[in-house]
Design a protein that fits this description.
single chain, 900 residues, Rossmann fold, 5 domains, five-stranded mixed β-sheet, 26 strands
């Protein structure tokens, strides 16, 4: 079953729909009604009660009025004191229409039921007088026909008794002195039953200059009049005074003459505060305000069943979402609140009552009526289809609607709304246009409107100690049946990142995050500006420092080069890791940026071409993540610069902002190593397929970014994929020698020439260092299958020839001889028992004698081989003679030593 929108169930009053209401219509004017010049809704008793909700305070007052007028008791003086716009004058109007009604009481909605229970009625003729503090000036007289009136007591007498009544106070009016209590008592008795309405008297009294007398009397004479009148009314059973007073806070602020106003207010509170002469009226409660607004702005609900269905759907989704929403939504009575407030959501009234009503000068009920009338008109014209009117529904894009809120806020909020919250230029609108997921529900604007409505009043923090709304109340202001809270939670996170005036903070007591708008740009806006001023080199330097700390000294390579130019990478035999700059990232879809950068390193070492290209391996950032990595680095740099400026006094931060800046900087600092590790995940290794005339190929290997350290993972990838060889089998060395170096005419290769070639040519294996080649040669030299060794070749003889001996020194003279050639040479020049088969005609040798002149390099090898061969027979007796001859460069002297 589909749910109906609010516009299908409840219809606004005609003046709201047609926008024919005026601002003044929400500001009740007792004098205008008394003079017959008010709008019909206020002027006619039946129309007035038709659109008036009788609150508990109004009900009590009307019973007191009826009791007093018929002489059945009741209070003689009633003080109505509350905040501006809370319904004091509206309540006076209810009493005025009750006393002066021209129709039957049965035609006044709510009155028959009220008076029927109390068994009361109202006299058909009641005299009324209205003393409006804003109607006259104390320094100027006014006229009724030809009669000149100068004072409030003259006005009171004229309204109650015309010329006859005025004659009682003629002299007092002329001299500006207060009439006595007896004269006023006689005046009230003569015209009883009567009611004297005194509205906004402070506005009149505070105008008197201190110590001066005007035509309207003096400050003291007017206060004396009010006291005498109150005491006189107490003496007349069917006379009543109804007086309004502002709250002290409202009277004490925002006026140049507030000192006089406060003095008058304190005096009047005492006059109307004497227990024997007054009773105190109670303003409307929060729940009554809901009824007042609904009664004033909407016709009665014409589809109660639809209303019930919608409200139950709200109650169900609140129960389903559970703890994500405020605790009060889980109670059964919240459904009753939904019914009473419909079609407006209770959260609208809660935010007004708890937040906006705390603002100085905000007219309580009148302010709600003015704002909601314009908002409802705009929503109706825009064909709004929400199920209820929530904070997230409010049309802040409409200037007329939002002006009734921003007028109570400091300057600057228009820019906040237009840029961040609502309207064609707002960030929220742009986000919804780009992401249809959010646009379908206006999620971004609904969240921003809710936060603004619940956080803009500046007194929230002072009142509660907690700024803004928590996530639960944000969801309450947005979520409707048929939706899930996840979309609003998601968009809230996006708004925190994007909006310039949105702030958030963790509440350490409630373990919750609160969100609020301010009329000055948040630190994030400042950070965005600072990010734009940070150049790419600073970002690279920041990432490089993080990278160095992550890798440390435990590196597999002889050198690591971070974001340097090709000219800064040495062209030597060291194994080097080149970390490409972030902007030269790699992706499988777009590899060219990284590849082109890599080839530039391989091709030149400015100003000369690079010769040892096979000593370089490259690490590249993930192109799809490098922007995020660079952004976090910029964020960290921006927050750091902001904190430095605050520390040096170049920027002013309040404690909350300082705490936020430190927290954001710490978060960026801690998050950067992780994102660097995740981003630099591609190991690029140059190579060639087979021969030197082919273009380089680039093999790409992904790194595991979740285990181990970065340096250990790079080392693992290099070893497991044989990009770098830390050990090598001699069979592979023999294979390369046979393929590229040994030929039938030249079956010999220099070992150091092979090493140098591995440094240069990409098709050759990449050994970690020269020690790997040494170990490979020594391992192969022990066998007779891989190669022979020698240290020179002259006159068809190898110097220091060996086959099958692993004692080898790698220097520039070391030769590696093809195995067959080595064996043939051995048979021809250095036969051994293994290489020369025994002759059947020759006796077996039982002794050996040899002498040879050898170099110092060959001495050790020659001695090892001879001793090894001769000592193989345990019965042999070995005698070795060593003769050494040296020549000293200092004194030529032939020294001979013989050791036996």
């Amino acid at each position: 079953m589909s749910l109906k929108s609010w516009r299908e169930i409840a219809t606004p009053h005609r003046d709201v729909l047609e926008e024919t209401f005026r601002q003044s219509e929400f500001n009740a004017d007792l004098t205008a009604v008394h003079n017959g010049k008010a709008a019909r809704e206020y002027q006619e008793a039946a129309s007035f009660f038709d659109r008036t909700f009788i609150t508990e305070g109004m009900r009590w007052l009307l019973i007191q009025v009826a009791q007093c007028l018929v002489g059945r008791g009741g209070e003689s003086v009633i003080r109505l004191q509350s905040a501006l716009g809370s319904g004091k004058t509206h309540t006076l109007l209810a009493a005025y229409h009750l006393a002066t009604h021209q129709c039957s009481l049965t035609e006044l909605i709510g009155i028959p039921e009220l008076f029927g229970l109390a068994g009361l009625t109202v006299p058909s003729q009641v005299c009324v007088a209205v003393l409006d503090g804003t109607a006259h000036s104390p320094g100027q007289h006014w006229k009724h026909g030809q009669r000149i009136v100068r004072t409030l007591w003259g006005e009171l007498a004229w309204q109650l008794g015309g010329e006859e009544g005025f004659s009682r106070v003629l002299d007092a009016d002329a001299t500006g002195t207060s009439p006595s209590k007896d004269i006023l008592r006689e005046l009230l008795e003569t015209h009883a039953p009567c009611i004297v309405f005194i509205d906004d008297l402070i506005a009149y009294v505070r105008q008197f200059p201190e110590g001066q007398t005007l035509s309207g009397g003096s400050y003291d004479s007017n206060l004396s009049f009010v006291q005498a009148l109150a005491e006189a009314a107490n003496l007349v059973p069917t006379a009543l005074i109804l007086a309004t007073l502002p709250e002290p806070k409202h009277e004490s602020e925002g006026k140049t003459d507030c000192r006089r106003g406060m003095s008058a207010l304190r005096t009047l509170e005492k006059i109307f505060g004497l227990g024997r002469t007054q009773a105190l009226w109670k303003p409307a409660t929060r729940e009554e305000t809901i009824e007042i607004v609904r009664c004033r702005l909407f016709d009665p609900v014409h589809d109660p069943a639809g209303q019930d269905t919608v409200c139950r759907a709200f109650a169900k989704i609140y129960a389903d979402e559970g703890t994500k929403l405020p605790n009060e939504t889980q109670e059964g009575r919240y459904f009753d609140r939904l019914i009473r407030a419909y079609p407006i959501h209770p959260e609208v009234f809660d935010r007004i009552y708890e937040d906006w009503d705390t603002l100085d000068g905000f007219p309580h009920i009148r302010g709600v009526l003015k704002f909601m009338a314009k908002a409802i008109y705009r929503l109706w014209k825009e064909n709004n289809r929400d199920l209820t009117i929530q904070p997230g529904s409010l049309p802040l894009y409409d200037g007329c609607s939002r002006n009734d809120l921003t007028c109570y806020l400091p300057p600057g909020w228009e820019e906040v709304i237009e840029r961040d919250i609502d309207g064609d230029r707002a960030e929220t609108t742009g986000l919804e246009n780009r992401d249809s997921h959010f646009g379908q529900t206006n999620a971004a604007r609904r969240v921003a409107r809710t936060i603004f409505f619940g956080s803009a009043p500046a007194s929230v923090a002072a009142k509660t100690g907690i700024r803004g709304l928590d996530r639960a109340h944000i969801l309450l202001g947005c979520l409707q049946p048929g939706q899930t809270s996840s979309i609003y939670i998601e968009v809230l996170a996006r708004l925190v990142e994007r909006l310039h005036y949105l702030n958030h903070s963790s509440d350490k007591f409630q373990d919750a995050i609160h969100f609020w708008f301010e009329h000055r740009a948040n630190l994030r806006h400042e950070i965005e500006d600072r990010k734009l001023r940070i150049d790419d080199q600073a970002v690279c330097n920041k990432i490089a420092r993080i990278f160095e700390r992550m890798v440390g000294s435990a590196t597999f390579f002889d050198g690591m080069h971070l974001f340097v130019s090709p000219a800064e990478v040495p062209d030597d035999s060291a194994l080097r890791l080149v970390v490409l700059p972030p902007q030269h990232g790699y992706s499988r879809e777009e590899p060219h940026l990284a590849f082109e950068s890599l080839l530039e390193y391989l091709s030149r070492q400015s100003p000369q071409p690079r010769h040892r290209a096979n000593r370089l391996i490259f690490l590249a950032a993930d192109q799809n993540r490098q922007a995020s990595m660079s952004n976090i680095a910029r964020v960290a740099l921006a927050w750091n610069s902001l904190l430095n400026d605050a520390k040096e006094g170049r920027l002013s931060l309040d404690p909350l902002q300082k705490k936020q800046a430190e927290k954001e900087f710490q978060a960026a600092q801690e998050g950067l190593p992780r994102i660097v590790r995740e981003c630099y995940r591609w190991l690029l290794c140059p190579g060639q397929e087979a021969s030197t005339d082919l273009s380089p190929t680039i093999a790409v290997f992904p790194l595991n970014t979740t285990t181990g350290t970065m340096s250990s993972e790079i080392e693992r990838a290099c070893i497991e994929n044989e990009l770098v060889l830390i050990s090598w089998s001699p069979i592979h060395l023999r294979t390369w020698l046979k393929e590229l170096y040994w030929t039938p005419k030249q079956p010999v290769a220099r070992a150091m020439a092979f090493w140098e070639d591995t440094l240069r040519y990409l098709y050759l294996p990449r050994l970690k260092n020269r020690d790997v080649l040494i170990q490979t040669i020594r391992s192969g030299a022990i066998s007779r299958d891989f190669f022979g060794t020698a240290y020179g070749y002259a006159e068809e003889e190898f110097e220091g020839f060996h086959l099958g001996n692993g004692t080898v020194q790698l220097d520039k003279t070391l030769l590696l001889i093809e195995p067959k050639t080595a064996r043939a040479y051995e048979n021809a020049y250095h036969p051994t028992p293994e290489s020369v088969p025994p002759s059947q005609n020759s006796p077996v040798s039982t002794s050996f004698h040899g002498a040879a002149e050898v170099s110092t390099v060959m001495f050790t090898q020659l001695a090892d081989q001879i001793v090894s061969a001769l000592s193989s027979n345990p019965q042999a007796k070995i005698k070795i003679t060593v003769e050494i001859s040296t020549t000293s460069p200092v004194a030529e002297k032939d020294t001979r030593a013989t050791t036996r």
